[in-house]
């Protein structure tokens, strides 16, 4: 299976794309200030770009929760975590390992019982999603970073669209949330709205629904193309626009200093060399809804990966 580019791009948004701002330092500081958590002592100066201190000593390895949010503003819906992953990061060795989490994984959400894991975010925000994963996998997560998928639309439009190969006619309408997907089979250039429809398509009006695996392949295709086009845009005005989009659509619990340190250590990372894996389960129908059940031995496999990474071993 190809590398899950959607997850790689999320990491680049946080650790890499912001690095373009190194060429325009003031904008870079403003971007970090916008997306970072504000320490209590600095809350009276939230609108002022943060002063970045000298780079600190390398952190020990840590775990960061990354997720994409799909919001439906017309329904006042805060959105669900449509894409969820864990980034294992070792700043000292300049190493990142990505673990994808099935969004339909059947887990115990503290205070709410057994549900799909992507229901944790609308129930209790990033903190509840983080706590759910910590309890489920018996791990400690240092912090989180999220991206609103509206930012994906804006970035695709900014670069003039992306060329993809639509594998089949895609048509799905849902009057309840305003969904209207209408794509024809074949290679074509998609604007932001249609590109998001392409990567999110699951249900079909004709009953031939798409699997999560097929959707991941489409996400990989679209985001690989977007990543290439973003990397080729080196004009200051375009970089400025990219950072404006990042500022409006990324939020993290990391501080400005933490972000700055990580950007400087990871912005030049070789994307092709990133290690990736995912929790694997099986689909089951429970009370009329489909869930992904992850067996205990699979959880143990991923826990071993995490423990080995945190101990600097392979």
Describe what you observe in this structure:
- The protein has helices at residues 5-16, 25-35, 120-137, 150-158, 192-200, 212-231, 236-249, 256-266, 296-310, and strands at 62-72, 77-90, 95-101, 106-109, 113-116, 143-148, 162-166, 170-174, 179-183, 186-190, 250-252, 275-278, 282-286, 289-293.
- It folds into two domains: 5-155 and 236-310, 2-Layer Sandwich (Nucleotidyltransferase, domain 5), CATH 3.30.420; 160-232, Aminopeptidase (3-Layer(aba) Sandwich).
- It starts with a helix and ends with a helix.
- A hairpin with a 4-residue loop joins strand 2 and strand 3.
- The model is unreliable at 1-23, 40-44 and 53-58 (pLDDT under 50).
- The chain is globular, with a radius of gyration of 19 Å.
- The chain has 314 residues and is of the alpha+beta class.
- The strands form five sheets. The protein has a six-stranded mixed sheet with strand order 11-6-1-2-3-12, with helices on both faces. It has a two-stranded antiparallel sheet with strand order 4-5.
- The protein has nine helices and 14 strands.
Briefly say what this structure is:
This protein is of the alpha+beta class and 314 residues long. Helices cover 38% and strands 26% of the residues.
The shape, in one word, is globular
- Beta-strand percentage range: 25-35%
Tell me, rounded to a whole number, the average pLDDT. Answer: 77
The computed structural class is alpha+beta
Number of domains: 2
How many H/I helical runs? 9
Distance between the termini: 21 Å
Can you tell me the CATH class of the largest domain?
Answer: Alpha Beta
